[in-house]
Amino acid sequence: MARIIAVTNQKGGVGKTTTCVNLAASLAAMKRRVLLIDLDPQGNATTGSGLIKEQLETSVFDVLVGSHGVKEVMKVVMEDTPDPGKYWVLPANGDLTGAEVALLDLPSKETRLRAGLYEVDNDFDYILLDCPPALNMLTVNALAASQGVLIPVQCEYYALEGLTALLQTIEHITRALNPSLEIEGILRTMYDPRPSLTHDVSGQLQKHFGSKVYDTVIPRNIRLAEAPSYGLPVLHYEKQSRGAISYLALAGEFIRKTHS
């Protein structure tokens, strides 16, 4: 059965989509079967994986409302790359902006995604969910469907404040919808070791979360920033870059922790 991981933080700009796309590509390069689900109406994980939102005939919206199954909608990406590395994407487009309203009138509105994923549960090793930076019905569906939550955190002043709100949300979802949900890990992103604030926040994260904090950190890296404009994970854009090497290291640590 697939390990389903929601990648989320209610604070925007912390590297959720970057982490989803590049962790998916790195796990695929390690010959794991990966499905990346784009639950953000902006669709950045979709375009960052090389798909054109405007040309999609169906999207994750159709899965949520029950008009199509996951297998009908998901697309394979990076299939033509020379290295092992293809993965699958359940894409998003502008239709997803109407999901909040559409779901209100549907039965079991909080667990529509969980029900939709049953048909592919044995087809993948990992399913990664890229969540929007808000607590809405899309995020609730992601948390209700997942076994774990991976939380990207930028080591800055407001990081812990946003993290507190997210932990309260996870606790609520655990009680109300998904008792098996747990924190998969805390990932430090856009990491710059020079400011003392970085070390202070990093130290607080390690104090509060211990082994849940990944040893791997994701540095600020220009290649990571450039890769989405080419519709590529950084591994397929510049595999020798610090960003690519860091996400490969994260994938290795991620695999070890999920099997420990």
TrEMBL record:
Residues 3-183 form the AAA domain. InterPro entries: AAA_dom, DNA_Partitioning_ATPase, P-loop_NTPase. Pfam families: AAA_31 (PF13614). It comes from the Bacteria. This is ParA family protein. It comes from Marinomonas arenicola.
